[in-house]
Give the backbone structure.
Amino acid sequence: MATTTEEAFAGRPAVDARFRICPATGLKVHLAAQTLIKANAVVAVVFLAIGGLFGLLVALTRWQTIHILPAEWFYLALTAHGLDVLLVWIIFFEVAILYFASAILLNSRLATPKLAWVAFALMLIGALVTNVAVLQGDSSVMFTSYPPMQANPNFYLGLILFAVGTLIAVAIFFATLVIAREEKTYEGSIPLVTFGAVTAAVIAVFTLTSGAIILIPTYLWSLGFISYIDPLMYKLVWWGMGHSSQQINVAAHVAVWYAIAALTLGVKPLSEKVSRTAFLMYILFLQLASAHHLLVEPGLSSEWKVFNTSYALYLAVLGSLIHGMTVPGAIEAAQRKKGFTNGIFEWLRRAPWHNPAFAGMFMSLVMFGFLGGISGVVLGTEQINIMLHNTLYVPGHFHATVVAGTTLAFMAITYLVLPLIFQREVILPKVAQWQPYVFGVGVAGISLFMMGAGTLGVSRRHWDINFTDAALSFDYPAAAFLMLGLNGLCALLAALGGLMYVVVVVGTVLFGKKCEDGPAKPLEEGPPIGTAAVSSYGSAGTFALPGTYVLVTVFFTAFVLYYFVNWKYLSELWPMS
Amino acid sequence: MAITPPAERLWWKEPIARGELVWIVIAFLWGLIMFGMMVWWHLNGQQNPSNESYRIDPLVFGERAEAMAEAYTVREDGDSGIPVVHPPPGSDVYMLARLWEWWPSLEFEKGQTYRLHLSSMDWQHGFSLQPNNINLQVHPGYDMVVTLTPTETGTFSVVCNEFCGVGHHTMVGKIYVVDAGQGG
């Protein structure tokens, strides 16, 4: 119908039938992109459920009084847990975000939807092949699969297929940016959220290439075509994927923070220049992060370690520190403009805490900074790493970044994606409202108690710290067992939060009330968004942001104190060099 | 808004608010301090990762460890069958990692310095000295030399903290530290 009308416009392709106008935002939604976003997001959530269940089993095994799995199953579950949540859930969701930030936010069509389905199929097949290899029991090599330990060849093959599929999806994202620019679907520069997605995509190209460079020879080695993989070289290149890909997550979830703040509160960035430069710093420096895993390794010099582990003078950390101030700052500016100007914190008290999108976003921001950020810098300090390498402190740290940070942010934006993209009213609104709190508190506990156990020396990836069958024995302090018990309890809480999320999402997708005329409740209290509305600066007119300054000061004080406390502990170790 | 194109097309020319600028400067300086701490600790600190390592054939490393054990074994470690070796202070000391044991157990003298060689016979392992919490990665084919000075007497355990298969959790070794001139 619209096609025939469109054909009247000589020389322009008849595209309009392929779009709908979003009643809530005024954005033009490419229907093929919308279907792809749905498919990628749904698969992501399925793997989150599977991987989360494995994670719960791992936590309940490490709780020594429960110790639910036997050793073989424990290492199998731990391998599957890392694979399904760290890789499959997050990357599938990120592909959905890339399509959203390009096609939807730029009012554009998605480049080659057919190829996007090929990418989707490759990723799904890859994920299944690797999962089957793990479940067969001969590939319990952990997510990192360090040689000379060897997995079933299909373990590596699946990962390679997954990486190729993801690379295609990233290429489609870039192609969509080109199309949007060519077809002039937006005015001026791309939005900040899309800029963040570009950052994530550029880093993805680097990390996926690193993955291919090391996993293809490793695959050939597992088939017997290559006789030897140097274990140190493997680690160096593998972590060029393994850690740098976490920076895809950081860039993506920071973009999601900005997107949720914009959609729920109409937040404008304080300064486009500052926020964009901070994203640029990720691209320039985050690739050095492989060193974080090599600080107590033989064969690498301290000069190399110090330069790389600090991301060259902490310039990528600077990027995160900037976002950590500009995101709450922009929220404060928006709230103050709405009239919440009493005292230092009225803007924060009167924020929409009942809205799971906002609540999840703000908790993600706070926990990523306070728990994940500070612990990451401390852990990545060359000498301090001696006290923490391969202890439970490491998973404690990355559960704060990847689960409390990335996963919680992705869960939060789901509550906006459901009405906007799936066009369904979120079911069980009370459950949805509590979900980010239950999950967030659980994950905060997991992170803190694992870090606590790690500072007591408890090893990660370890089935039994009672050393029951060992020839020589050792007793960890009682506090270590307490930490693992508390970790188990918090894992139960987080699993409950995860279950609430899956129930709400799956229930909404299947049974939610259709809302093709837009969500019943407006997304934000304020003027409608509209395509023509371009942003001006959030700081204009409200230069004073006292609440944000207080938050940042508290954060910085905690950071400095904790950093130097760890140097103090280090100075008490046996002298070594 | 963050989801719409910026109002100023030339967004890189816009001014930066004072509050943001102050935070950027503080954060940048803090980064320099943290970078400087690592360099400073190499010059003035006592606890630094080893910078001495060699490629080595696991068989050769095994022979060196056995030669040391042959010369300086003082007793058996409980009924584990693993010897306890009391090497001369200042000497080259070998501890090898294999599925699933640390071999041999070592006895050091407090306040003496040793050149501790760590390497693996098979897969990767993690040297995690407890309760001190000193953690080092052990690779096959690489001989890492750590110059180590125990400063307290007692029994210390080496837990493996790099996953090395289904017997990983049984891999515990021992380092005993006695007063100078004692033991043996």
